[in-house]
Every structure is written in structure tokens, then in C-alpha cells.
Amino acid sequence: MANTFVAAYDGSPAGRRAVDFALAQAKAAGAALVVAHVLEWSPYSFLTPEELAERHKRRGEELERAEKAVMAPLLADLKASGVTVSSEIKYGHVAETLCDIAKARSAGQIFIGRTGQSSIVERLFGSVAGSLAQIAPVPCTIVP
After folding, report:
1. Distance in angstroms (rounded) separating the CA atoms of residues 79 and 64
2. Secondary structure of 65-134 in the HEC alphabet?
3. CB 34 within 8 A of CB 6
4. Which pTM value belongs to this model?
5. What domains appear along the chain, each with residue ranges and CATH number?
6. What Rg do the C-alpha atoms of the chain give, in angstroms?
7. Residue 135 has pLDDT above 60, yes or no
8. pLDDT digits (tens, 9 = 90+) for 37-75
9. DSSP bridge partners of 111
């Protein structure tokens, strides 16, 4: 059995359910848990130097906000769980970035929440959970 699991967390109730389920599974398996928060970031290739500098500044602010407002409270809640918990905050396409994190950490499983709300966009292009289930390099659990 792999000794590391990855759980996606976006601050939503569905994300918290995925983390809680992953935590229980990690505890039962004696595995560590990596909680991953992925910020969508689309690369723009035609920006002026001023626009690039502004964008870089905003990126730093977003990373700081994600660390303080999203991840720190969660990690504080999980501290007494008895499971080794770490976190990663990355930019990129959510499903692809979660796969990259799982590969880099040699994870045995990925956990992600399902929001239960489907929009026309998700029906046409697919949800993050659906995309992840199709491309994940390891088993992927979608938590309702």
C-alpha cells in the first residue's frame, strides 16, 4: 500500500469532505496526507513588461491569501489527527496539477470532492473531478 495520499482542497464544503475522507483513509492505512490547493492560472504569452510585473505581484498575493485563508486553518484543524499532513499550493490546470503532485509525491491515491452542482459548462466540458478520474495516474476517489 502506498504511504502517501493526495486530497484536493479548495475551501468548499465538498473539498472539506474529501479531505476528511482522505484523512480517515490515510489513518487506517498508516499513510501520510498531502492536501493540495490548486489555483487556476492561464498563461498569457503577449503581455508587456509592466503587465507581467503586475501579474507577478497578483500571483504572490494570491499565494499568500491561499496559504493564510484556506490552508492554515485547515492544517490547524488536522494537526491533532495523528496523521502526517503537509500541503502544497500550486498554479495550473487543477486536474493536471493534482496528477503532477501525486506523481512527485509517489502517492497511491487522489481524493477530490464532488460539488453536486452541475452547470451547462460542466456538462459540455466536464468537471474537474471527471477530468481527474480520466487522467489520474493512480486511483481517484470522488467524494460526494
Report:
1. 21
2. HHHHHHHHHHHHHHHHHCCCEEEEEEECCHHHHHHHHHHHCCCCEEEEECCCCCCHHHHHHCCHHHHHHH
3. yes
4. 0.85
5. 4-143 (3.40.50.620)
6. 16
7. yes
8. 998 866 666 777 787 778 778 888 888 999 999 999 999
9. 7, 141
